[in-house]
Amino acid sequence: MSSEESWNPSTNAQQFFADQWAKALSAFPSVASDASHKPGVQFDSSKLQALQQDYVQEAAKLWANGLASPAASQDKRFGGAPWLSNPLAALTASTYLLNAKALTGMADAIEADEKTRQRVRFAVEQWVAAMSPSNYLALNPEAQQKAIDTKGESLAKGIQNLLHDMEQGHVSMTDESVFEVGKNVATTEGAVVYENEIFQLIEYKPLTAKVHERPFLLVPPCINKYYILDLQPENSLIRYAVSQGHRTFVVSWRNPDESLGHLTWDDYIEDALLRAIKVVQEIGGTPQINALGFCVGGTMLSAALAVLAARNEHPVASATLLTTLVDFTDTGVLDVFIDETFVQMREAQMGQGGLLKGQELASTFSFLRPNDLVWNYVVGNYLKGETPPAFDLLYWNSDATNLPGPWYAWYLRNMYLENNMVQPGKLSVSGTPLDLGAIDIPVYIYGSREDHIVPITASYAATQVLPGNKRFVMGASGHIAGVINPPAKKKRSHWIREDGALPATHSEWLSGAQELAGSWWTDWAQWLQGHAGKLVPAPKRYGRATKYKAIEDAPGRYVQQRA
């Protein structure tokens, strides 16, 4: 690399993000393999004709007026004053937006099966996002102006930021130096009271003189670290549960290394979920507990409850499912990646052992929203030399977690590809057939309206599968921000149906729902209290007797292991 090339953050940034895209495709490579296969493409002629006519008209208008009177863009990438004050830059941005609109329209005009259409649109959206003139120093007047104003310091800082991110292996979405697990995130006081090779069980110190007699167990997704539920005191769902008088426990998953690359779905259900439920029972000294599962944690909890029902065991009195896929009919944008060829390849690669690296998954999920989670950081971090603001949620998002290959391959086939868990008896755990219809307990089901990981229709679908007394609530925002919405902040809103009806589709449910200001947490807290039992004196120490003693202070060792 020449010194000239190394000085240019735009060139280096593009290469770095090409590498990040490669990581994403290595996690879900079917799109890449399809790219080399070029079937004949046909377009809806009427849509294509209308698209061409619109393009010619808008292009003519743009070229007639662009340089003379550039219009302000509604796109935040081009909303800064330097774009509007520079007619050539404004024209470049407008031309790009026109071409992007045309390309997206052409993708929508393709005549093919729905899967192919989705993949073409996804590929076009990725290309369009990458080609934005805002991503390139030579075409970005804001970055150029900042370089002039700072006498080149912004470019020097951009190079430093790029080298730092290349060394750590991922894009900085926040100022990671501000946060430390156990210091200012994952700070709720507690202790590890049990551990095995898969997870640690953390018990939290009561904040009330009395607690409900039924303990409360939270199961986070094993593809992430648990402290999304315990970011900081003011937005910690764990601390909120403790403050509501629940004797609270959480599963803290170990970040697998190669020594755990053999673990299967059965191992996680039998040796983690069922074991955690049993330990919480024994520590609480109660025949039943309450449980919550978030995202994949909710899917695993549902499977564990089905195993228990089949064994005629009923240790869980109620369950809460947050943004959880139970019925995988609608998997949203992730469906673009999943097909038989891809699943077979993953089964061959790691079905018998190995690891899916956390950074591969992290890159994939970022590229699902490239303008918000990828290219804006090219501009801010590297072209402008800015340090992204400190944000606890994005710090957690960057703290990647590996997955055992056999678990991952099994999950892809049986959940995403074949949707087997909703078929009674189709799946078994440790020889026990699963039937979700046997989980006859009260369930609180939450979905986020703008969730791109678990679409709101998919969250709602659980209401049609699980047989017990159910309550469905929809919150505003997305997969994470919709869930982590503490009442004190008085942000966003949620929807409920006072009549409790659960019709066949989410749209039918929504037609009779009422929007309420603020967090859904208060509604859930009231519901959970109704299943938590009477109040009893809070325990004075962690664990129970000599069998379960405090091993170490929360957050424990497992959550601090880096991928």
Q: In which order are the strands of the major sheet placed?
A: 15-14-13-12-7-6-4-5-2-1-17
What percent of the residues sit in helical stretches (DSSP H or I)? 40-55%
Q: What is the global morphology?
A: globular
DSSP, total strands: 17
Question: Average pLDDT, to the nearest integer?
Answer: 90
Gyration radius, in Å = 25 Å
Fourth CATH level, the homologous superfamily of the domain at 190-335 and 417-560: Alpha/Beta hydrolase fold, catalytic domain
Sheet having the most strands: 11 strands, mixed
CATH topology of the domain at 190-335 and 417-560: Rossmann fold
Amino- and carboxy-terminal Cα gap: 30 Å
Approximately what portion of the residues adopt beta-strand conformation? 5-15%
Given as residue ranges, the uncertain stretches (5+ residues, pLDDT < 50) are: 1-7, 27-38
Structure description:
There is one protein chain. This protein has 563 residues and is an alpha/beta fold. The chain has a domain at 190-335 and 417-560: Rossmann fold. It has 20 helices and 17 strands. The protein has helices at 3-7, 9-27, 30-36, 45-65, 81-85, 87-108, 114-130, 141-149, 153-168, 237-243, 265-284, 296-310, 340-350, 358-367, 370-383, 392-398, 405-417, 456-461, 506-511, 521-529; strands at residues 190-195, 199-204, 210-212, 216-219, 248-253, 289-294, 316-322, 355-356, 403-404, 428-429, 432-433, 443-448, 470-475, 493-496, 514-517, 535-537, 552-553. The protein has an eleven-stranded mixed β-sheet with strand order 15-14-13-12-7-6-4-5-2-1-17, sandwiched between helices. Strand 12, helix 18 and strand 13 form a beta-alpha-beta unit. The longest helix is centred in the first third of the chain and has 22 residues, at 87-108. It is globular, with a radius of gyration of 25 Å. The two termini are 30 Å apart.
